[in-house]
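Field: sequence (string)
Field: structure_tokens (string)

Example rows 1 and 2, in order.
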Amino acid sequence: GNIARANLDYYAAYDHFERAVGYSPDNALYLNQAGILANILAKYSQQLIWQEKALAIDVQQQGEDSPEVATLTNNLGATYDDLGQYEKAIEYYQQALASDLNTYGQEHPNVATMRNNLGMAYHALGQYDKAIAYFQQALASDLNTYGQDHPSVARDRNNLGMAYQALGKYDKAIEYF
């Protein structure tokens, strides 16, 4: 599966991980990889099945506050985001953020990513003030971690620009763009 994915043969990679899950149905790594490939192939309903199983297994094996569980929780949020189910995505993103805050603290890059994801979901719902609050937190953290000239900082500024543009605050949007 990994070799096929490295060769960009996503259908073959998905087939391999799907078979791996058949051989070892309690292996969260295989389930998660099958879920990631299902996302690439836009098989979102199947992706949900793989990711929910992987999350349940990791919660049982590692506890709710492990970094791996936070990653799987975030991935489920992203799947619901892809499906346009933003409220559900926000639930998962908030759980992942709470876990990563507990594990890493305020200034960790994972925390900034979770905040960015929450901002994007709120933006999609048209709740621009909430989106801006999360984008500003992500930007402050990423500036502290990476400095001015990093792709994550550029992403955060772009997202802030989009949110201000959506509010009709064009001067503020231009400032961030």
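Row 2 begins here:
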Amino acid sequence: MSRLAGRVALVTGSSRGIGAAIARRLAADGARVVLHARAQRDRAEAVAETIRATGGTADVVMGDLAQGDAALDVVRNAFAVHGALDVLVLNAGGGKGGMAADMPVETIDAVLALNLRSTILAASEFARLTQSEAGRVIFLSSGMATHGAPGVSIAAAAKAGGEAFMRSLAQELGPRGITCNSVAPGCTRTEMIAGQSWPDQVVPWTAQRRLGEPEDIADVVGFLASDEARWLTGLTIAANGGLITTAANILARAK
């Protein structure tokens, strides 16, 4: 496929998991991909090599998005690789969980910096730099942004804030032909949940009775990055396999 031929895409947090799958998908669609990692360059280079091995173009930039204005430098460095940037996928995220009342200020700041502040900085710098007439900004959110759960309150606030930012940014950048959307994955099989038993409890709550795979999310992002999604902006797409979340539905399913 070549629907992204000639376009340059930066995928943050793309050394593994969903980010790596997104980078591979965009490369398969013809984009020149710039991968990003915080510290493990070798892992990002390994993903880049798999892309090059199939005839794609891939480069790597480094930076700790939670530190100061590093997100600006990551976008600038990615732009400098090809002198252009058409697609920005804001996938990097995570951080320590815990009950809000037990979270020290330093931890709260770190979670917000990685999941929200870096999103704002990176997307704003993309908007300043890109000359693309088909620009795409895609934020990887989470089901926690809309469905409450204990132990994730700070990250949930950050993801919800990211979605709100994207909705308003879509209005600001729309006249330039740039779309801004969010994708909210459900429980997805990655290294982050490997070896844990709780994900198995989620399976019966999905319409398709399985966990998501990174490629399931990557395909949605690939669509949003393409011209076919030109009329979609300011949206959050729940890529969760029909996950049910209300107590009534859970009880009904249990019966």
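free_text_note (row 2): Residues 100 and 122 are 27 Å apart (CA to CA).
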